[in-house]
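Exercise 7. Given the components listed, write out the predicted structure of the assembled complex. Treat all entries as one system.
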Amino acid sequence: MLRCSPSIHPGSRLFSTTPAFLANPIKAKRPDPNSSGPQKGVKSLKIKKKNTLRSAGRPPAPGERKALRKRIVLSNTNALEVKGMQDLSNDNMADKQIQGTVVGLPGPLVDQLRAAEAFRTGQGWGLFRRPGVLMRENSLEIARDLQDVVSGKKTLRRIYTGERGSGKSVVLLQAIAMAFLKDWVVVTIPEASQNRIAQDLTNAHTEYAPLSSSTTTPSQYVQRAYTASLLSRISKANSAVLSDLKVSLSHKLRIPIQPGTSLSHLADLGVRDPDIAWPIFQALWGELTSTKAARPPIMLTLDGLGHIMRDSQYRDPAFKPIHAHDLTIARHFVDHLSGVRSLPNGGAVLAATSASNVPFAPSLALAIDQRLHPTTSASSPSPSSSSSLSSSQQMPVWRKPVQRNPFMTYDERVLQSITPDLEIVELQGLTREEARGLMEYYAASGMLRHRVDESFVTEKWTIAGGGIVGEIEKASVMGPRV
Amino acid sequence: MRAAWLPKLGSQPLPPWISFQRQAPRRPDISLFGATQGFRRGAVVGTRRFATSSTRNGIAAPEISFELKDDQKGIPRYARVVPASPSYFTGKPDFTDNLLSLQELLRKHQTLPAAPPGQVPRIAWKTLAQYRLLVGEPVKASKYHKIILLLQRLNHIHPSLLPEEVKLAMAPYKRDINPHENVANQHTADRFGRVIGVGRRKSSTARVWLVEGDGEVLVNGRPLISTFPRVHDRESAIWALKATGRIDKYNVWALVEGGGTTGQAEALTLGVAKALLVHEPSLKPALRRAGCITRDPRRVERKKPGKLKARKMPAWVKR
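Answer.
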């Protein structure tokens, strides 16, 4: 390049052959901040996505989505009112006539059940005009058993187990409903509720503290917030019964209890102050099981038994897992279930396993399996000798004898809590008659638009794996879920 | 190559596939070609050995001995090797011979009465690939089709009048196993009234025992619901019964293995349908309409080199 240097004589120019690199470097162009063009060295390819959804409003508040998810809808205004549907009552609950029919739950009872958190999401309550339950064989059986409890002041102790969708939780709900109708005191530990979840009892989501008064080893732990919510549930659901019952014993509590205080008020004291919730619960339980005054029978239920039949997620000061049975509420339930503590005024202790939210509890599974299929009386597989199996006969199913897995460590506390006198009921599918009654209810509600006849019922019954009630509902009312 | 000594040609009987007599007037005798156009001239060298190593003996045909035997003493030394069949010069001699011989046979027997269309025996002829292996020549499909047409025409001759030579001529073209003679085993109910049906789909196999009953189903000893959590699969499994309205008439006890959930469910469809056909053969049209008769032959397509899956190409990279 040739460069013209400034000359001595203006107007004339010197000729120079200085190489170009001696020249002042050309300054790089500054990127114009106003220009919208792509900048050098910066990747600028932007592929516009179609239909990008811009959030219009504010995001949902914390907990809002969960509340929506956990919301329990008990009515569908678009469903038809079923004409001639009976209500569940004291008179008809053990009546053989209503087996296989759907009975409605009366309004006040629904409120009580809601307060006891007996309803669960996903049970299809929101499909029909008002809550109704199918009276199946097991429902009538529990109704009869509750009558026996009242007459004999016995304690009914039972675990419901069965396949997913076989109706364990709903049978539990029916038992709770019957207990409410009989003016029992019902204490529920539901599997999943809006505030406290049964697995919350053991999954370390609520605060805990060692029980100061406990002298036993291993030491006990109390969950004050959970106990307060349990007391709130008891108080709300049983307010009618508890407000009529007065305190009859003297209690050593931090706050004075006036003689003549209603038990409902006693429970509310614990709701208000979680610090004393556990002593209040003990006092309330003492009152309810007292034989000095006239007390109604008690129903104690828990859904999702597996959660309290293993180590909890809580840790002790040495950072070892705390066994669920060392948590006071779980211990309270297990003691009553296994018969260590009794209900002197009679009552029922019912538990249901869960098949959809199953914690790893091999000891419970083993204990239940051993009880359901005892090796001593196991019949050998026998080939069917008849030419065709009649409807009353079950197809022979050969099962492996239940044995301990040698590579598994079992929890002896759990195995011992499933005592031999504890009843274990495995829920089977509905009978065809019951399935038919259920489907007729679906059709009468306008949710099933198909003629309910023999072949249709059998078809759905078979597809539902032999009348598993949850699957019948899925196959006939809910339709395909895509 | 079949070879013969030319001077002996006249004295020996010709094999049947050679039709010199017909072709002779139309073209000159094959031996009239000049010696330079024919076979290798090395033939005249006689005693010279061509083999370069002794191992050759093991893999190749023995050398042609050009030493004269006693009975050939009178033959002149400078003789050419000529092909046994004039078809040698067509490039596909065996094929041509075959075609010509079949044409000859047909010409000879075409006046024989044909069997009525329904009574012609069904024969599976060799496939083109099998025929190519047989003759060792690159025969085209269209050419082989000519042979097949001739065979079919010959096969149409009434079986009672079919000459023995036609039977013998057709035999090499038949497949070793005639699939048309393969008749499915007829299943029957056993003494308990159970009928077994086997169904397959993808890589699943289902064995189904169907017995008169009231709609109970056990698959691998478990209820339908624990085997197939999806409603769709459960419907597939008993689709044959559902489509014919027989759910409440039979009990199913089945063993399924291999494959995934869908394959197992659809293998059951086929197995149930086959067993149902034994109980009620008249349901076949209904089952066919429901799609329960035909086995779906599709399997997983194999992966190919250069592809990520069976067909998926790797992503395009600029460099």
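Discussion: Chain A touches chain B at residues 163, 384, 386-389, 391, 395, 397-398, 454-455, 458-459, 461-466, 468, 471, 474-475, 480 (CB under 8 Å). The first strand of chain A starts at residue 102 and ends at 104.
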